[in-house]
Amino acid sequence: MLNKAAIRTTAGRGHLFDSILDTVGDTPTIRINNLGVDHATIYVKAEFFNPMSSVKDRLALNIIEEAERSGTLKPGQTVVEATSGNTGIGLAMVCAQKGYPLVVTMADSFSIERRKLMRMLGAKVVLTPRAEKGFGMYKKAVELAEANGWFLARQFETAANAAIHEATTAREIINDFAGSRLDWFVTGYGTGGTVAGVGRVLRRERPETRIVLSEPANAQLIGSGHVQERRPNGAPAASHPAFEPHPIQGWTPDFIPHVLQEAIDTSLYDEVIPVAGPEGIKWTKALAQQEGIFTGISGGATFAVARQVAERASAGSVILCVLPDTGERYMTTPLFETIEAEMDEEEMALSRSTPGYQFAV
Description:
Elements: E1 29-31, E2 40-46, H1 56-70, E3 79-82, H2 86-98, E4 102-107, H3 112-120, E5 124-128, H4 133-148, E6 151-152, H5 159-176, E7 184-188, H6 193-205, E8 210-216, H7 221-224, H8 258-265, E9 271-275, H9 277-291, H10 297-312, E10 317-323, H11 345-352
Parallel strand pairs: 2-10, 3-4, 3-6, 4-5, 7-8, 7-10, 8-9
Antiparallel strand pairs: 1-2
């Protein structure tokens, strides 16, 4: 007989929403139970609970609404932006709801499902050659904006990026850990908005919390010590010499974004720990198969670093890391190379183990 006392109930988010945009943020913080270490506790902030399944929904919404408030975005004006995918998907959601045409430029090396998602949401996706890297797609967006009088979102430079993380992501973390320990905060970087916005608040309100930034082991832009060449408006003037292609999509373009430069210049992190792409893939799979947490390669890479931190942390330490997006955004990447669509031998044996409903091969 069903034990009614054991049935879970849900509180929901508490009210009806006027639009999909009102569901951005307030993502859950989840304890790791099976992949942690004995002497410390690891939590993950699951940004795939945002409506378009990534942390970039936050900045996409704030970029558009800040532009509306300032008058730099006119009704019906086309929005254009360079993106590896998640910011473009977030912008496509916002623009669909608010009625702005959207054009995205994206290197053709990024996963196919990202461009399909943006097109499904009504955006136009202009692909650029992978040999030109992130800087190439960035320059194409600038060209299109200047040639057509479009609004360029400038996720890599705009103050609206870090501002939304200061106002929402950081506040959620402060509230979640009110009255309890938070010894370490771990994040990677794409634009740098998360570390800059959260770092500002943690430095003010939780100065005991050490902040760890991570980047790909084969593309250590910060670790290289090379200064990024910039234009007067903060935009990159050239591809960074330390960049190499890496599988952690959404992390570390081939330039140091202006938004991230604030975190570098004002010491909004305590150390940088590199992580190899295969390690990110390994821990992404482990999170899925042993915790039921389905994140992308960037999430697995961040968790890999968080676990390194936990292993050397003092007893009782509490570590929080950010999982930026969902694993469904990586179906055509190396993450799923070993995941077959057809039955393997063990599954086929199970099919043949009983007489009914066998799949004929």
